[in-house]
Design a protein that fits this description.
alpha+beta, 5-stranded antiparallel sheet, 19 strands, Sig_transdc_His_kin_internal, Sensor histidine kinase, cell membrane, transmembrane, phosphoprotein
């Protein structure tokens, strides 16, 4: 993976830019989610606290209304008169009960109003009570009741004609407005079911609940019915004491974690406690998380698309330039690339174009210099050889041999003279096929005299191609290679066959021998040298390693290089050999259109 990224500038830039985009986006998403969850939780708590305050206000209104009504009843003239009389008046009794009943009936939260005289007069009440649990509470909280002008009882149960009812009662003494003598007791009982309805109808979260605690921290409404009249600490021992008038706590020990909100009713010291399951706003947090994740993914996809588009736009010239350089053929003209921008990439492409023009000019100059150098070397070699001197000397030797009647020496000298004359040939590189064959035959004749009875050579040429032009000095080095490395190392007499034929607009030449052949390792070595020559001639600037390649068959490699230089890649030597059988070397020369028959 690392190498895959290292090979492409576009991939590396894409990765770096995507990291630069992804990390801020993820950081922003995480911060946004944390802020959103915090805001969601705060809003849920604030909404819950507002609901508690609304319930507090309603309950405070009820309590205040009951207390005001109790003051009104205590000072009511008929009630004062009834309690001061030693014998109860039936009319007064009926009238007072009617007043109490009207007050109780007009307020749903009042279940019963009872006036208990201190004398023997009958008790006034709006609901028939067969059994009441108030008296034990008065005895239990006697000290508190006696020291206060009014007292709110804990939750207790009464038996009525309609069945058992749970109530919370306001109990206060009735005194004479003139003498302040205690005349009786007023009890106003609130219906716990109606108080419960206030809590359930407040719009609290459906999966949560609200508790109402009295001044003794006992549950008087809300929650599980089995919790009624039990202390809050008994039901929720881990929450501890509620220190302030309002606040927020967390309950983790329930089946489901809850956020606990509480608010106190100052008039009585009652407390409303609301429980909100944390999953309610966690669901909202999940929604926020989903929206944030989708937004980040969309932003990432958009960012990736824009990054890839702009990188493609920026790196496209570099990619194309790289492709040009990668597929560059040193033998062809270096192409230029159109400059479409003036930025750094445009300047790079412009510099490349200038460099390609410079290389092209240097290439032409080098080729010209090489050609001039080669021509100078040939002229110098010809001057050193002084061909006229050699020709005249060999001609003199030829005539002396004839005069001495030594025909073999005369023919050998004549063949050598023709061989040298063709080799020099005033520096010309091309000749006819016939001339090339004659040159090879002169060489073979000289070698046959030197090594009598060691070999025989035969030439087979297509008559249609004998006047066709070809590069000279191609066959003689191949015959020499067959003679030296194949025939002379063989104990028996060997044969050399030189073939030439026309095939598919090409002249194909083959030099075969019946010599010792080559071992497989040596054959692979020579074939490797041929391939190396192909590589060297296909690359303009040869490396030092290429220049120092060990060459063991100079004659063959030189012929191969000359064929490649003049006729192209398809004209090189093909070397085949079998150990103990012989060697076969072939090459092909392409014909130009209309060349045969000229």
């Amino acid at each position: 993976m690392k190498r895959w990224f290292a090979k492409s500038l576009k991939r590396k830039l894409s990765l770096l830019i995507l990291f630069a985009v992804v990390l801020p986006l993820l950081s922003m998403g995480i911060v946004s989610y944390q802020i959103a969850t915090s805001v969601t939780e705060d809003k849920a708590k604030q909404a819950g606290m507002n609901t508690l305050k609304q319930m507090t206000d309603k309950l405070d209104f009820v309590i205040q209304d009951v207390e005001n009504m109790s003051i009104f009843l205590i000072g009511q003239r008929d009630i004062q008169a009834y309690l001061n009389s030693k014998e109860g008046d039936v009319n007064s009794y009926s009238q007072i009960v009617g007043t109490l009943w009207n007050l109780s009936y007009s307020k749903k939260y009042i279940l019963n109003i009872t006036i208990t005289p201190s004398n023997s007069n009958p008790v006034l009440f709006t609901t028939t009570i067969t059994n009441s649990g108030l008296q034990p509470l008065l005895q239990q909280y006697e000290s508190v009741y006696n020291s206060a002008t009014k007292w709110w009882s804990p939750l207790y149960e009464i038996q009525t004609s309609d069945g058992p009812k749970k109530v919370i009662s306001l109990v206060r003494p009735i005194r004479d407005v003139s003498t302040f003598k205690t005349l009786g007791t007023l009890t106003v009982s609130l219906d716990q079911a109606e108080i419960e309805r206030y809590l359930t109808d407040a719009g609290w979260e459906s999966s949560g609940f609200v508790l109402l605690l009295d001044q003794y921290n006992r549950i008087i409404a809300g929650g599980d019915p089995s919790w009624l009249a039990r202390t809050f600490a008994e039901i929720f021992p881990n929450l501890g004491k509620l220190e302030s008038a309002s606040g927020v706590l967390n309950e983790e020990n329930m089946e489901q974690p809850h956020t606990v909100l509480y608010n106190q009713i100052p008039r009585l010291g009652w407390t409303l406690i609301g429980f909100i399951p944390t999953e309610i706003y966690q669901k909202q947090n999940g929604y926020v998380l989903t929206v944030t994740a989708v937004t980040i993914v969309i932003a990432l996809l958009l960012a990736m698309g824009l990054v890839l588009y702009f990188l493609q736009w920026v790196t496209k010239p570099l990619t194309k330039l790289t492709k040009y350089l990668k597929d560059l053929n040193p033998e062809e003209t270096i192409p230029t690339y159109e400059v479409k921008s003036v930025d750094e990439v445009g300047l790079l492409v412009h510099s490349y174009n200038k460099l390609s023009e410079r290389i092209s000019r240097l290439k032409d100059q080098v080729q010209l210099n090489e050609a001039m150098k080669k021509e100078a070397d040939i002229l110098a070699l010809q001057a050193q050889i002084n061909p006229h001197f050699l020709y005249n000397t060999l001609s003199s030797i030829h005539w002396i041999a004839l005069m001495n009647k030594d025909r073999q020496i005369a023919d050998m000298v004549g063949a050598l003279s023709d061989f040298l004359r063709f080799s020099l040939n005033k520096g010309e590189e091309f000749c006819s096929v016939q001339q090339e064959i004659s040159h090879a035959q002169n060489y073979a004749y000289i070698q046959a005299i030197r090594f009598p009875d060691q070999f025989e050579i035969e030439f087979f040429m297509d008559p249609k191609m004998v006047q066709t032009s070809m590069l000279k000095l191609l066959l003689q080095p191949l015959i020499e290679n067959s003679l030296i490395h194949g025939i002379q190392k063989k104990k028996a007499k060997g044969h050399i066959y030189v073939h030439g034929e026309l095939r598919d607009n090409q002249m194909k030449f083959v030099v075969e021998d019946t010599g010792i052949g080559m071992e497989e390792a040596k054959l692979r070595d020579i074939q490797g040298q041929v391939m190396q020559a192909n590589h060297q001639l296909g690359v303009r600037n040869e490396t030092v390693k290429d220049l120092k390649t060990v060459v063991t068959s100079y004659g063959l490699i030189n012929v191969h290089r000359r064929l490649l230089l003049h006729y192209g890649a398809g004209s090189g030597l093909v070397v085949e050999s079998t150990l103990g059988v012989g060697t076969r070397i072939s090459f092909s020369i392409p014909l130009e259109k209309g060349e045969i028959g000229q």
